[in-house]
Amino acid sequence: MPITRQRVYLDNFNPAADSFLPYNLTTLDFEHAMQDVYDFFYDMNHNLRDRDLRRFEDMNRPAAISGMLSDMLTDSLAKHSRSLVNNGHHNGHPDLLVEGRYAHNSVLSGEHGVEVKTTGKSGGAVDTHGARSQWMCVFVYKVDRITEPADFRAPLKFTEVYLGYVEAEDFRHNARGELGTRTATLHADGIARLRQNWVYLDR
Prior knowledge:
By secondary structure, the chain is α+β, with helices and mostly antiparallel strands. About 30% of the residues lie in helices and about 20% in strands.
């Protein structure tokens, strides 16, 4: 079975999203960013399977896929948006900054911008490195690792996108193990508020 190209379906966008998206973002920016990712995976997997190698999703750990998707989506949103650029500070927060607001578009911890997260867990709950007030964007994606034979597996797709302003009080702190890094996740009320600002749903 040939590798198929995933598509962004316009009917899955929230028709009211443009009214609450910050910093001049539009659903068109999200359409382009998600399609950029889909096109990358199509090109990559087409070349891999032509060489009898496994799909990119199958040869990488879920955590690696999630981190790469966050970087790709951040770059694509910066490319397509009118007002946002990549945060030039290594591991700086947030991932996207309002252009020109900070020197050299680089800041360790800033207020003006959007943090981008990805998760394979339905609903949009995702661990963060700390509880803070911020514009947070969460992309939920689905990877088919079950269908056999593997050539019949569906391509990666985004099933949910949320973007809303959350307060530090909307987070709960997670227990930390001996070797773990302390994280925070939106509590039930916080995630419920974030889900009200859904941008894209494909279920």
